[in-house]
Each structure stands twice: as structure tokens, then as C-alpha cells.
Amino acid sequence: MKNISLPLLLLALAGAPAAAQVTVNPAVLDPPVKPADKKVQSSPRPPSAKPPQPSAKPAPQQQATPSTVPDVPLAPPAPPVLPLPIAVTTRPAAPAGTVTITADAPGAAVALPGGLRVTFGPGQSDMTPAVSEAVRALARSTGKLQNFNVTALAGGGDDMSVPRRLSLARGLAIRALLINEGVASTRIYVRALGSNAEAIGTAPADRTDIMVGPTPPARPTP
After folding, report:
1. How far is CA 47 from the centre of its chain?
2. pLDDT higher for 50 or 108?
3. 9, 96, 151, 216 - which has most CB atoms within 10 Å?
4. Cβ distance 153 to 205 under 8 Å?
5. In the chain, how many domains are there?
């Protein structure tokens, strides 16, 4: 604010011209000059401190790709070609055997505990109708799901192969009668022992023992 002197004020009121004395306060004319602001100095960073790392930007979200529908063929695929089965050589089954029925053939059928004993004439393998019917009746009475252990023997001679072949013929004849009654061949165990002295024991040599059981017996019934 300007300071005006009293004489000048009186002259103005009186209306007379006069040389004005003006006293001016220089402090009012110009505003006081402010001292320059001091820059704020940051405290020195210790040498061991690492500079601040910029924050990692979040990974952009992956947009889900639309699933594609697989192409479906119009016609079904051709069936696979399977290889031909491999032929495996197996042991051939024993022949069914030949049953010779003779009305006057020597021999008989004797019941045994759990089986039947069939006797033959020396050097023969044929049976009478009564003997063959006894073998068939044994198969019918015991059932088709039983195992039949057939042990065939024959009298000895100079050639050991002869009684063995004869005992085999007798065993196969019994086997054929059992198969004809519906017994599976896999349930019939034929053992042709020929003139084995231990197997013959004290019983007649020309015979065939038919035992019904789960497994073949260790030795024929004496």
C-alpha cells in the first residue's frame, strides 16, 4: 500500500495546485524476492544396494483356441485282416480199436471194487456178447464224467513185443466199448503193460482191469 504525505492531502482537499511530494515505500512496489528454493538432495545410495528392478509385467492371458471337430469318415474302416492260425502238431489220438465179438470166445467179466476185470483167452482179444455188455453196463452205471483207467496185460513169450501188442489190442477194444457208450476219449487212460511180471502179480496174465477213479492207479489190482 502506498504512503501519501499529509501536505499533499491538504492541497488536494483545498483544490490548489502544488508540487506534490510523494513518498513511496519501495518495499510496497515490488514484492520481496524470495530466496531460491533449495533442491532436495536425496540421500546417497549405499554402493551395495541394487537399483530397483522394474516390476514384471503380468503375462498376457492366452486366448483359448476353439477346438476343432475331427473329420468323421462317411464309411466305416475295413475290418482288420487277421493272420492265419498257426498249425500246431499235436500227438495223434489212439485209434478207437476194433471190437471182435465171438459167441464162444474164452473169457469172462468179474466185478472188482470200483471197477471190472475182463479175462481173455491166450493170444486172443475177442470177447463174448456177455463180456462186452458188462463193459457197457459199467460205463452206463458210473456216468460219462468219470475217468476210466484201463490196464491191459498179456501172457509172456520169447518175443516181448508180442504180448505188448496183444495187451494194446485188448485195451483199445475196451476203450472202443466205453466210447460207444458216450465216454469221452480224454477220460479213458489205456496202459498196455504186456507181460510185466510185477503188474501181473498172482492174477491171470491174460486180462484187462477197468478201474473207475480220478487218476490212474499206481499199479494194477492183483
Report:
1. 69
2. 108
3. 151
4. yes
5. 2
